[in-house]
Amino acid sequence: AAAPAPAPGPAVDLHSMKMGPAARFHLTQTGIDPAVVTGTGYQGMITKEDVMAAIAGGAKAAPKAAAGAPAPSHAAAAPAPAPPAAAPTPSRRGKKDPEDTVNSPIRKIIASRLLESKTTIPHMYLSADANLDALMEMRAELKSAGVKVSVNDCVIKAVAMALAEVPAANCYWSDTDGISDNTSVDISMAVSTDKGLITPIIRNADKLSLMEIGKDAKRLALKARENKLTPQEFQGGTFSISNLGMFPVDKFSAIINPPQAC
Predict the structure, then answer these.
(1) Handedness of CA 260, 242, 201, 134 (dihedral sign)
(2) Paired strand residues for 61
(3) pLDDT (tens digit per residue) in 87-99
(4) 143-197 pLDDT, tens per residue?
(5) Burial, 200: exposed, middle or buried (Cβ in 10 Å; 0-12, 13-18, 19+)?
(6) Could you give the CA distance from residue 160 to residue 170 in angstroms, rounded to a whole number?
(7) What is the pTM of this model?
């Protein structure tokens, strides 16, 4: 008598298993049982490379039921289900172990000052919309004359003029000495560098022309990114400006830079 055909493998729902779409496609096409594939992806996920490795290692398609084979009798006892395959151990093959990045001294100072500011200084935020059509027209006219100024340069100039008119906002706060007036308007502008955020200072900004502010801002920003600022160039500002207008940001809330009061 002819040998009985091998029993068909159990149907597997590939969509219920952790695998990438490419791996699922190749398993479907080849008919390989995913239980014989060792997943090396995140948390044991089966990847396309894992399926290719299984094929190269000799994995064969799971046996299928012969065409026209009679359906098993309901009276016959159902075979005991096979024990579930052990979950493959996640592997980081080809990947580096995570590494801790040691904070630089400047980042430690930034973290300390921001923590001090946010936890000890009351912050009150006010906002208003401004129409800058005239400002943009002025920038276009200056550009046609060979002079380039940024919107940030204009913000620095406007803030400096406002502080000169309202000196109460251009002061320092001290728990011991109270309020200290400043005799000059020195604008700290936030500049992002590889080592962290630093605030070079445009001295006497209220007395500078827009073009002088633009030239000074470019020079200081370049020195900041090259880590060439002197202490005099980033210590002692009376008011700080953080501008994210060059990014898709409509509004954000800055943190006061102590001992500045605003």
Answers:
(1) negative
(2) 32
(3) 555 555 556 667 7
(4) 999 999 999 999 999 999 999 999 999 999 888 888 999 999 999 999 988 888 8
(5) buried
(6) 9
(7) 0.60
Q: 174 - beta bridge partners?
A: 178
Neighbours of 210 (CB within 10 A): 17
Q: What would the pLDDT profile of 18-44 be if each residue is shown by its tens digit?
A: 787 777 888 888 888 888 888 887 677
Q: How many residues comprise the chain?
A: 262
Residue 104's alpha-carbon distances to 17, 43, 137, 226, 232, in angstroms, are 44, 33, 43, 16, 21
Q: Residue 229 and residue 227: Cα distance in Å, rounded?
A: 6
Give the DSSP letter string of 85-145: PPPPPP--TT-PPP-PPPPPHHHHHHHHHHHHHHHHS-----------HHHHHHHHHHHHT
Which residues, including other chains, have CB under 8 Å from residue 43's CB and lie 6 or more apart? 18, 90
CB atoms within 10 A of CB 60: 12
Strand partners, 240: 188
Instruction: Kindly report each contact of residues 72-79 with a partner whose C-beta sits within 8 Å and lies 24 or more positions away, as own/partner.
Output: 79/7
Residue-wise DSSP of 14-60: GGGSSB-HHHHHHHHHH-B-GGGS---SGGG-B-HHHHHHHHHTT--
208 DSSP assignment: S
Q: Distance (Å, rounded) from C-alpha 240 to C-alpha 17?
A: 54
Cβ of 137: how many Cβ atoms within 10 Å? 10
Compute the distance between CA of residue 105 and CA of residue 64 in angstroms, rounded to an integer.
Answer: 66
Residue 250 has pLDDT above 70, yes or no: yes
pLDDT for 88 equals 57
Q: Which helix (H) or strand (E) holds 261?
A: none
Best CA proximity match to 31, nearest among 64, 71, 66:
64
The single residue listed with the structure tokens 């009798």 is 73
